[in-house]
Amino acid sequence: MGKKLGITEKDTAEKRRIRMEVPLAMKVLKKDIVRRIFYMMMTSLCVLSCSNGVLLDEFRPVPNQSWNYAFTPEFKVNVKDNQIPYTLKVNLRLTSNYRYSDLFVLVHQRHAKQNEFTTKRVGLKVADKDGRWLGKGAGSLYSYQISYHANYHFSDTGTYYFKIEQNMRDNPLKGVSDVGICVLPANIIE
Q: What is the rounded CA–CA span in Å between residue 166 and residue 71?
């Protein structure tokens, strides 16, 4: 083994330790690079697949991956055609530290001309009965884009605002990395 790593009897203990640890560090670095490339490819694929006519497809990071009731990220979308149906989705990224098989959120929506939000409670299934994650991902991060309204018609054109609020018993809700909204025409093939 010493010859394989280039260790000789003249090497100091420090040189031997370094020569033993460098291959292990390189192996860890290669895994990290592969993971980063995978996430970049998944993000690019999502952007490319969602860019054709998509009105909004955003994520916002959850501070410390602990979603507090007070953290309600807001998203803005400009609707130019209210005659066509849209698909509304919740974007979600969870870490393997998330403890539940579902996640309930309140999606608040309002038109710029309105003062009050309308609210819809949405249940998001994130794992099956065996605890296997249903999202896409690798390592300890899983991405979801879950439809909560298909063939939705906006009442008017103009700017709409969306807010997402976590609606679970835990406060803060640990293991949630990012949340967001996707609004796309219903005819887009996913």
A: 8
Regions of the chain short of the pLDDT cut 50: 1, 47-50
pTM: 0.70
In three-state secondary structure terms, 102 is strand
109 forms bridges with which residues in the sheet? 118, 162
Residues in the chain: 190
Q: Hey, which residues does 120 pair with through a beta bridge?
A: 107
Closest listed residue to residue 1, CA positions, set 18, 22, 20: 20
Candidates 95, 147, 152; CA nearest to 122 is 147
pLDDT given at position 131: 86
Question: What pLDDT does residue 30 have?
Answer: 67
Question: Does residue 179 contact residue 91 with C-beta atoms inside 8 Å?
Answer: yes
Q: What count of other Cβ atoms lies within 10 Å of the Cβ of residue 48? A: 9
pLDDT at 180: 97
Cα gap 146→135, rounded to integer Å? 9
* Residue-level pLDDT at 53: 83
Give the pLDDT score at 50.
45
Residue with tokens 């959120």: 105
Residue 89 neighbours by CB under 8 Å, 6+ apart: 145, 146, 147, 148, 181, 182, 183, 184
